[in-house]
Predict the 3D structure of the following.
Amino acid sequence: MTENYITEDPAFSLKGTLASWRSSLAFLLKNWKQLLMAAIAGGLLGLGYFWFTKPSYTARLTFVVEEAKQSGGGVLSALAGQFGVDIGGMSGTSGVLAGDNVQELLKSRFLLKKVLLSKSPLDSSHSVAEDYAIAYGWLAKWAKKSGIGPQNASFPLGAKSLSRVQDSLLQVIMKEILEKELAVSKPDKKLGFFELNVTNKQELLSQSICLQLIKEATVFYIDTKTRRLKINVERLQRKSDSLEYLLNRKTISTLSANRDLLNVNPAFTTAGADLEISNRDKVILSTIYAEVVKNLEISKTALIQETPTVQLVDQPELPLKKNKMEWWVTLGLGVIISIISASGYLFIKYDK
């Protein structure tokens, strides 16, 4: 019968660990020349990364949306808020820029496309998309490709329709912006402040995209929020203008009929009928006109109350935040990484 013995791990010894560290350090010091060469090479690579890497610029914008009618929960909402329960948030928000909807709206391709086809701050004859492609070196590559060509590599200002190739290239630009350069956040969930960050290799493009995007979103939001009331106000305004025109004409005709009545022959018993009918029509038009004007003013007041305010708190101002590591940081990282890599290589080679 064979006996199976279970081997036990050796007990931990601080003295043995220190001895192992000393031997490893001695081994590294013995190969100091290789480590020095690796450090020099890593430092040069770090400096090369610093010199050949272009910086990026971040445009930061903070805004707050003020709604005319706030949804209140009364005493119940205040009481629930003391226990950390947000009844207003549970009921949902219907505004386009209310709640978390703002993040999806500012990332919509519809608004971003309008911004990219707007005038560029670098060249008034170019669109933002065209200067964006130039800044990233894409325009020259696209123009040289046989399937694209120079005519499809440009994006005209305010173009209503684009070719299939132009639209595909614009999708590439929008994908780059949405996935890597555009960020919308809410720093504090309890507050109504939103933060928009746009990062780009061109400083002016970062600022322009950031400002144009919030401008387009504001116009879209206010138009969506007040469209129904605007249509109602315009309809009442047209009706009011028409009634005012008819009332003015009826007033003139009534005065004319009243003047003619003074010269009429008393023998005619129906001579005052025209004046009576004119006065009746004038009273009816005046009553209708007064009601329409009253409804018009009520609708205008409601439109003013429903129109929200998007207030910019912090706007991106030049110079923007520059995103690039200092030369001494890249130098130090290059040296450290190269020494660690060289040490690992030497240990592996030594074990073999």
User: Anything to note?
Assistant: The CA atoms of residues 39 and 335 lie 5 Å apart. The chain is about 60% helix and 10% strand. The first helix runs from residue 14 to 30. Confidence is low (pLDDT under 50) at residues 70-84, 86-93.
